[in-house]
């Protein structure tokens, strides 16, 4: 095992990730991840993939991939020479099309300028015509002349002998109180990363997961069936309707990068994300009858 592989493995272990977890987060095959930890780069598709896989591995476990590759550049195969040869080979083929494109663009510029002047002239003429037509339209004056105020009829005029009739106030019917949703935080399990919650006073169990950073999220029902298990991109939002379930477990790979909402109410973590990166939320749902 190389020093680079040892450092990556220690960071993975500190995060509480297994190789299976890391495979789901990075989408890199488990055998390649094991090869990186063992320093066995011969099994990789090529030098480019070695550096790319190491960079993804480091980012997933919270290490600075650029500094890591620079520190252990003697251990990592380099693909610089291959990239230089490809650049030198492809460079001449690009010069001629660029020249032709520039000449064509220079020829089209006068035509574009003339077309713009024509369009501007048409727009100015159209606005002037509309304003002139609006000023000559007598319809507004005619409408004002036709409006008249009718005097009130004799039936509508109250008399001094007839007192005003007081209306009896309507008695409101009994209104049932609207149930208030409650999300209560309970105990933290002995594993130190699972917080229990209870959801009451609600008819629905809707979960919204918002990713403020790139990280892995998994959601399972009481039977252990996975309803969500993948890495979310930055800014991605996932909505799940779990109203038919009595409970659900939500597992996040990086708590500081994920916000969880239940029926549009944000659920706070029971453990500070600074203390525990990987956390579970176990939510029990009692449906309002």
Give structural attributes.
single chain; 434 Repressor (Amino-terminal Domain); six-stranded mixed beta sheet; 8 helices; 289 residues; four-stranded antiparallel beta sheet; alpha+beta
**Elements, N to C (H/E):** HHHHHHHHEEEEEEEEEE
Number of helices: 8
**What is the makeup of the main sheet?**
6 strands, mixed
Helix content: 25-40%
Q: What value does the Rg take, in angstroms?
A: 35 Å
Task: Give me the secondary-structure category.
Answer: alpha+beta
What is the count of β-strands?
10
Beta-strand residue fraction: 15-25%
Shape: flat
In what order do the strands lie side by side in the largest sheet?
A: 1-2-10-7-4-5
Separation of the first and last Cα atoms = 60 Å
Low-confidence region ranges: 86-99
The chain-level mean pLDDT equals: 81
Write a compact overview of the structure shown.
The protein is α+β, with helices and mostly antiparallel strands and 289 residues long. Among the domains are: 3-84, Orthogonal Bundle (434 Repressor (Amino-terminal Domain)); 182-287, no CATH class.
């Amino acid at each position: 095992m190389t020093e680079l592989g040892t450092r990556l493995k220690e960071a993975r272990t500190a995060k509480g990730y297994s190789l299976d977890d890391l495979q789901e987060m990075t989408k890199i095959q488990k055998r390649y991840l094991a090869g990186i930890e063992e320093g066995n780069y011969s099994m990789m598709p090529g030098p480019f993939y070695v550096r790319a896989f190491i960079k993804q591995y480091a980012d997933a476990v919270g290490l600075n991939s650029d500094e890591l590759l620079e520190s252990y550049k003697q251990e990592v195969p380099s693909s610089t020479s291959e990239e230089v040869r490809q650049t030198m080979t492809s460079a001449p083929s690009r010069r001629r099309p660029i020249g032709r494109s520039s000449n064509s663009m220079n020829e089209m510029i006068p035509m574009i300028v003339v077309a713009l002047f024509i369009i501007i002239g048409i727009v100015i003429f159209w606005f002037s015509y509309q304003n002139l037509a609006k000023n000559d339209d007598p319809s507004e004056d005619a409408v004002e002349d036709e409006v008249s105020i009718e005097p009130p009829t004799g039936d509508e005029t109250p008399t001094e002998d007839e007192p005003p009739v007081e209306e009896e106030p309507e008695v409101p019917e009994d209104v049932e109180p609207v149930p208030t949703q409650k999300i209560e935080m309970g105990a933290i399990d002995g594993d130190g990363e699972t917080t229990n919650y209870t959801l009451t006073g609600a008819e629905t169990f809707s979960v919204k997961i918002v990713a403020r950073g790139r990280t892995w999220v998994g959601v399972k029902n009481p039977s252990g069936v996975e309803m969500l298990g993948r890495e979310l991109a930055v800014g991605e939002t996932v909505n799940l309707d779990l109203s038919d379930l009595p409970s659900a477990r939500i597992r996040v790979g990086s708590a500081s990068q994920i916000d969880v909402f239940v029926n549009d109410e944000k659920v706070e973590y029971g453990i500070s994300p600074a203390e525990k990166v990987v956390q579970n939320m176990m939510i029990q749902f009692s449906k309002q009858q």
